[in-house]
Amino acid sequence: MGLLGADTASEGRHLEPTDTKALSREQLARRITVAAGANNIQAVMRILADYVGASHFLLARYDLIQEQGLDFIVTSNWPFDLVRRLGSELASGYSRSTELEKCLSLLTPTFSVLPEDAQVPHELGRRYCSLTFCVGRTRFSLMLLFLEGAILSQERLREIGLLAAYGASFAESRDVRSERDFELTERELECLFWIAEGKTSDEIAVILGISRNTINNYITSVMRKTATKTRSEAIAYAVRNNLV
After folding, report:
1. Mean pLDDT of 85-96
2. What is the pLDDT of residues 182-231, one digit of tens each?
3. Are 104 and 134 in contact (CB under 8 A)?
4. Is the model's pLDDT at 95 over the cut of 70?
5. pLDDT at 49 exceeding the cut of 60
6. Do residues 131 and 160 touch, judged by C-beta distance below 8 A?
7. What letters, b where the CB count within 10 A reaches 16 and e where it falls short, cover 117-148?
8. pLDDT > 70: percent of the chain
């Protein structure tokens, strides 16, 4: 037992605490780097939630929030019924806020109370904390639930806003790669390139040696896949995602 104790003590200098709340900033950053490097955004959010003493996390993309559907949820371990109930609240609240209010909320812990008719597990408090941050032009929000009576650290809450942005950037870059590699065909990318160069459908048809109608079909397909409504929006999307 003495030898085992000595080995454990020696190895302990190289081991990080298993309790996430006991981690130093450097140890926390290392754990997040490992999880983010594996594109495991759920693990990143779990680490951050543990660090601030939250029992549940929900990561949302504000650009996907809508009155119906849960496409805006990136990852979550909230009870499903609670997520479904909160979805419409988030959509309506986000639509009512001004751009200035959205900017001022960045990286600032904000506390809200769940709707009265929301069913919450008895051990959880009804207040939740939201941390809004941006990855490129996409705005995210990390929402945290806590056990009733939990004591929170404002300093740690502010810290994890930046760390959440770091972790979410991996998921965002993976989405961009997927769009680039699998959604747009080579012909569609060619058409996107030429409309970004200011060419008309007739001019692109001459350049590519295919009919004007076929060009228009490709461009329509590009706008459908990129969820854009005009050629200008499609060009902006292409520039934003490094497609042209």
Report:
1. 74
2. 478 889 989 998 998 889 999 999 999 999 999 999 999 888 888 788 88
3. no
4. no
5. yes
6. yes
7. eeebeeebeeebbbbbbbbeebbbbbbbbbee
8. 81
Encoding tokens for residue 154?
């404002």
In this structure, the number of other CB atoms found within 10 A of the CB of residue 41 comes to: 21
CB of 123 closer than 8 Å to CB of 97: no
Q: 3-state DSSP helix/strand/coil percent for the chain, to nearest 5?
A: 55, 15, 30
Residues 6+ apart with CB under 8 A from 147: 53, 55, 123, 124, 125
For 140, left (φ over 0), alpha (ψ -120 to 50), or beta? beta
Distance CA 28, CA 30 (A): 5
Q: Report all structural domains of the chain as residue ranges with CATH numbers, in order of start.
A: 20-179 (3.30.450.30), 184-240 (1.10.10.10)
The beta-strand segments (E) located in the chain are: 56-61, 73-76, 110-113, 124-135, 138-147
Token pair for residue 187?
A: 């012909």
